[in-house]
Design a protein that fits this description.
The complex is a heterodimer of chains A (281) and B (749). Chain A is an alpha+beta fold and 281 residues long. Chain A has helices at residues 12-22, 35-41, 77-82, 84-89, 91-98, 103-108, 111-117, 124-130, 148-151, 223-231, 236-246, 257-280; strands spanning 5-7, 26-29, 48-51, 62-65, 68-72, 134-138, 143-147, 152-154, 157-158, 165-172, 178-185, 196-203, 208-213, 220-221. Chain A has a five-stranded antiparallel β-sheet. In chain B, 27% of the residues lie in helices and 25% in strands. The longest helix of chain B is centred in the last third of the chain and has 28 residues, at 512-539. Chain B is globular. The relative contact order of chain B is 0.13. At the A-B interface, α12 of A face α19 of B. Chain B: It comes from Brevibacillus centrosporus. Chain B: It holds the Pfam family MoCoBD_1.
Chain lengths: 281, 749
């Protein structure tokens, strides 16, 4: 039997208090779809599991304003992918979230949890990257915000410091007359780990944004490629070579490094085509 | 002939329990005072066990004992359906990564799990082989060298060599207009049942009872009795409902050890394996088939010279039978005037391979049918046409000395072709492929059934067949209900309990509907004969009138009685029972290469339509058609479900499945995350199962068996379709996006 204490604080103050007390032996539980598995296989051995579910300040809902959407710490993946406004305005996010796990996992799992798990292959992160999402962090002493690009530090590592939690993610409204999209390469269409994840955003202004997952220790924005794609839209192939240069994928059972490098170009090119089609509409 | 129950979409009797999660699987069962067993498994492919230190493990609270092979009776009891070669626990050496080395017994699963981590095993590593060519090298380390049985060749890893043939291949080799030689490989794959392996054993009546999701309870009984030196009557196997077997739960795995532990401790013992441990328990043999085929200018086969090599595991299990029986059909479904088949099974330091849906035929058919597709290209004859030219007619001989062709195969092939739109215009980028799968069931098998007609007119059917998801509980009920003439609701089944039901060979080889179905029909006839005698005895007054039994009513001598009436009349009120005995015995021929003639030919015609994303290599199966010749459908819902389930499984080995061993002989992808099987999201866009029903089968109402057919020809049909659109031939599976992309990349270089 694996033993740990379990608490369910009902306010943020109480939660942050507990978190500070627990130190690095405490683990946070929202959907539990990663944590429970990690505990089961011994990857994590917390003494204390603190549930976020009853914390009244943490949101289950998505909230909208003129500038964008705010996704709460308890907003489930299902709630995001099914939301009509997300599907319409942030299609890459809806598509990426839809590719995470299975229906059962998405019904329990949260986007914030997916982000904090910091898998190099996390589907939602490339989408958050192209929308320039901002992470709202809170601790007992302080509140701060970090761009998603700076939040990811390595496989399983984030910018979160001891005693801090992610309170919400703010996703700014994409530029006017733009299209966005997320595509995933995997061994099967049902729940699977990503071989290459490619998110793209193209605006009528010429702006191009590319977010890539599963091809480096952390998902990243392909800035050099973006710049080239904006300046020389006809020479997309050369731009995509820049994205490949930035990647450093591994060979594993899912795919070889060689295949991953090739699929960066294939999937990003497709994603950009789809974005361009979406602007027209 | 119109039926009342047969041919109807009767819902499975266990469906509601399955979808609500209330079916009583062994994994959920408990007994008073039960011990939980957990296995410590080898870290190495091949190693000497120098020392096992379980002292710390035994100190864990709740631990009852830790047992290794040195604690077992000596010599260590060994088991196996063909050869008694597999020790209950690794005997001084481990022969594959994952072989059980020790078992912890504890009063809870958690304590057992904790103790497992405290056992220290000291190994001395030995060289190992996990690939075919390595195992065949002259200087290869020999797997299990002490265990020489009936098939093996001394001083090599050859587990067996079988030769079949007829005609004169050498002469035709010189005379054929055109010859084609190719090598086709099929990967090592796992059954991946959703229900893990599990069993509970307990002492009973001076013997042992075994509760297990086992397909073949009578084989398990025999194997355990032999391993533990017991009488058959001292071993009772209670076959529980199975949550996915596919051949993997056919032959004994953890049961002999668990039975020993129950007898040794005098307590109920339960062992449940994890899904990951399933990979260490059963797999399909990988294969390399070298096809050398001669054709005349019209595309008719002149000869087949077939070399089959199966890579089997560290112990025989049933792999030798898989190898010999499948290679026996090494020429596929075609008229082959001259044939030479040479099959070898080769041991390796890997998980023992066993039966797997299709029993070797998916590997053989992958080669035979890919070869036909290649021949059609080279000869310039349409793939459908070349098959029609070589397909035998009903009544013709397929394999000399075996059952003649028992169906209209051309009808089935044309139906599959028509359904896929063969010959109609193809949109750009679309490829079509066609293939035929064939298999014979278990020759020389035996099924017995007891049917009881109770005093109230209800019926209990006892069969050794197990319910493994194929719906036998429902179809056997339908067969009995139809035969005896009562509604389905009045029929109950007792299945797979060797203490309660008469002998049956196995729930395998798509045989139950034919073999056990016939036994049930014959038991029902026995009842009707007894009822007829009873009617004569009760009412005959000198004259002998005809007794007519129809739909549960007996009409004779101007009377019309229900079953309950006549039983009451004959035996007295509330008393009596009529017991019918039924037997089906397959053809058993001394000296026949596989023991006897096929009960029927299981044949399937598969057609696929695909498109390929040439940039990623991903193959999209737009349409997949299976047409099986089933003679007569007992339950259309079940028949379709079997075909679809098998086809999806076939898509698994076609597109994604493969067990991977690293250079040190360790299995590296034995788990759900790294070994992918198709999901509902991966099925064909259009998925069609059709049937040929000419009522010409050897089973009840003219039925033939299905269950395996749907998987057999998926890979060659899909690969032919991919070839049709890309022009690239694949002689290895799986056709993963990356593998297809690599080939495309090679072409473009």
């Amino acid at each position: 039997m694996i033993e740990f204490s379990y608490s369910e604080p009902d306010s943020l103050v109480e939660l942050l208090e507990m978190l500070e007390e627990g130190g690095n032996t405490a683990a946070l539980l929202a959907g539990g779809t990663d944590l429970v598995n990690h505990i089961r296989i011994g990857k994590r051995t917390p003494n204390k599991v603190i549930s976020l579910k009853s914390v009244r300040e943490l949101n289950h809902e998505l909230t909208f304003c003129q500038d964008g959407i705010t996704i709460g710490a308890l907003t489930t993946l299902s709630a995001i992918e099914k939301h009509s406004v997300v599907r319409e305005m942030f299609p890459a996010l809806a598509e990426a979230v839809n590719k995470i796990g299975s229906t059962q996992i998405r019904n329990k799992g949260t986007l914030v949890g997916n982000l904090c798990n910091a898998s190099p292959a996390a589907d939602a992160i490339p989408a958050l990257l192209i929308y320039n999402a901002v992470i709202h962090i809170v601790s007992k002493k302080d509140r701060r915000t970090v761009p998603v690009e700076a939040f990811m530090k390595g496989p399983g590592k984030t910018d979160l410091q001891q005693g801090e939690i992610v309170e919400s993610i703010f996703v700014p409204t994409p530029p006017a007359n733009s299209g966005s999209c997320y595509l995933k390469s995997s061994r099967r269409d049902g729940a699977d780990l990503t071989i290459v994840g490619a998110a793209a955003l193209v605006a009528l202004s010429g702006e191009v944004r590319i977010g890539l997952g599963a091809v480096a220790p952390v998902p990243f924005r392909a800035h050099a490629a973006e710049k080239m794609a904006r300046d020389e839209p006809v020479n997309l192939d050369a731009a995509l070579d820049e994205a490949v240069k930035q990647a450093n994928p591994i060979s594993d059972l899912r795919a070889s490094r060689e295949y991953r490098l090739a699929m960066i170009k294939t999937f990003t090119r497709k994603a950009i085509h789809i974005c361009r089609e979406r602007i027209q509409k | 002939m119109e039926f009342d129950v047969v041919g109807k979409d009767i819902k499975r009797t266990d469906a509601l329990k399955k979808v609500t999660g209330t079916l009583d699987y062994v994994i959920d069962q408990k007994m008073q005072g039960m011990l939980y067993g957990k296995l410590l498994r080898s870290e190495h492919a091949h190693a000497k066990i120098v020392n096992v230190d379980a002292s710390a493990a035994k100190e864990i609270p709740g631990v009852y004992d830790v047992i290794t092979s040195t604690d077992l009776p000596q010599p260590v009891p060994r088991f196996g359906p063909i050869k008694q070669d597999q020790p209950l626990l690794a005997d001084r050496v481990v022969n594959y990564h994952g072989e059980p080395v020790a078992v912890v017994l504890a009063d809870s699963e958690e304590a057992a799990q904790k103790a497992l981590k405290k056992i220290k095993v000291e190994y001395e590593k030995l060289p190992s082989v996990s690939k075919l060519d390595d195992a065949l090298r002259a200087d290869a380390p020999i797997v299990n060298p002490d265990s020489i049985g009936m098939y093996e060749e001394l001083g090599s890893n050859i587990c067996g060599n079988w030769k079949f043939g007829w005609g004169d291949v050498e002469a035709k080799n010189r005379a054929s207009s055109f010859m084609l030689k190719n090598v086709y490989e099929f990967p090592m794959i796992h059954h991946f049942p959703i229900e893990p392996f599990s069993c509970i054993c307990y002492p009973e009546n001076g013997g042992v009872a075994i509760r297990s999701p086992i397909q073949h309870p009578f084989i398990l009984r025999r194997v355990v009795a032999k391993a533990l030196h017991m009488e058959l009557s001292q071993v009772r196997v209670i076959g529980n409902a199975i949550g996915g077997g596919f051949g993997g739960k056919g032959y004994p795995k953890i049961e002999p050890l668990t039975a020993y532990l129950a007898l040794h401790t005098g307590k109920p013992v339960k062992i449940v394996l994890s899904l990951e441990e399933g990979f260490f328990s059963a797999r399909r043999s990988s294969s390399r088939v070298t096809m050398n085929t001669g054709f005349d200018l019209e595309g008719k086969i002149q000869f087949q010279d077939v070399k089959v090599e199966f890579l089997v595991g560290a112990y025989a299990d049933t792999a030798p039978r898989v190898a010999s029986k499948s290679s026996y059909l090494g020429c596929g479904p075609y008229v082959t005037p001259n044939a030479r088949i040479d099959c070898r099974a080769v041991y390796s330091h890997t998980v023992p391979s066993t039966a797997f849906r299709g029993f070797g035929m998916p590997q053989i058919v992958w080669a035979v049918e890919s070869q036909m597709n290649e021949a059609s290209k080279v000869l310039g004859i349409d793939p459908l046409e070349i098959r029609l030219r070589n397909l035998p007619k009903k009544g013709e001989i397929l394999v000399p000395g075996d059952r003649p062709v028992d169906g209209d195969w051309e009808q089935g092939l044309r139906k599959a072709a028509e359904t896929i739109g063969w010959g109609t215009e193809k949109p750009d980028g679309i490829g079509r492929g066609i293939a035929i799968g064939i298999k014979n069931p278990i020759p020389a098998s035996l099924s017995k059934s007891i049917v009881k007609l109770h005093a109230d007119g209800s019926v209990t059917v006892s069969v050794g067949t197990s319910e493994m998801g194929q719906g036998a509980r429902t179809t056997m009920g339908q067969i009995a209900a139809e035969s005896i003439g009562v509604p389905m609701e009045r029929v109950s089944l007792i299945m797979a309990d060797t203490g309660a039901v008469p002998f049956d060979t196995a729930t395998a080889g798509s045989r139950s509907t034919v073999a056990m179905g016939n036994a049930v029909v014959s038991a029902c006839h026995d009842i009707k004969e007894q009822l007829t005698e009873m009617a004569h005895e009760l009412f005959a007054d000198g004259s002998q009138e005809e007794v007519v039994i129809s739909r549960g009513t007996i009409e004779a001598y101007g009377k019309s009685l229900s079953y309950a009436d006549i039983l009451a009349e004959y035996f007295g009120p509330n008393m009596g029972e009529v017991v019918g005995n039924g037997t089906y015995k397959g053809s058993k021929i001394e000296g026949h290469p596989v023991g006897g003639k096929a009960d029927f030919w299981e044949i399937v015609f598969t057609a696929a339509e695909v498109s390929v994303d040439t940039e990623s290599g991903k193959v999209y199966t737009n349409k997949l058609v299976n047409v099986s010749d089933v003679g007569c459908i007992i339950n259309p819902l079940q028949a379709e479900a079997q075909e679809e389930g098998a086809a999806i499984m076939g898509m698994g080995h076609t597109f994604m499945e493969q067990m991977v061993y690293d250079d040190s002989g360790r299995l590296v992808n034995g788990g759900a995350l790294d070994y992918r099987v198709p999901t509902i999201m991966d099925i064909p866009a259009e998925f069609i199962s059709k049937f040929i029903e000419n009522r010409d089968g050897a089973g009840p109402f003219g039925a033939k068996g299905i269950g395996e057919s749907g998987i057999i020809a998926i890979a060659p049909a899909v690969a032919a379709a991919v070839n049709d659109t890309l022009g690239i031939r694949f002689r290895q599976l799986p056709l993963s996006a990356e593998n297809v992309w690599k080939e495309l990349h090679r072409e473009s270089k």
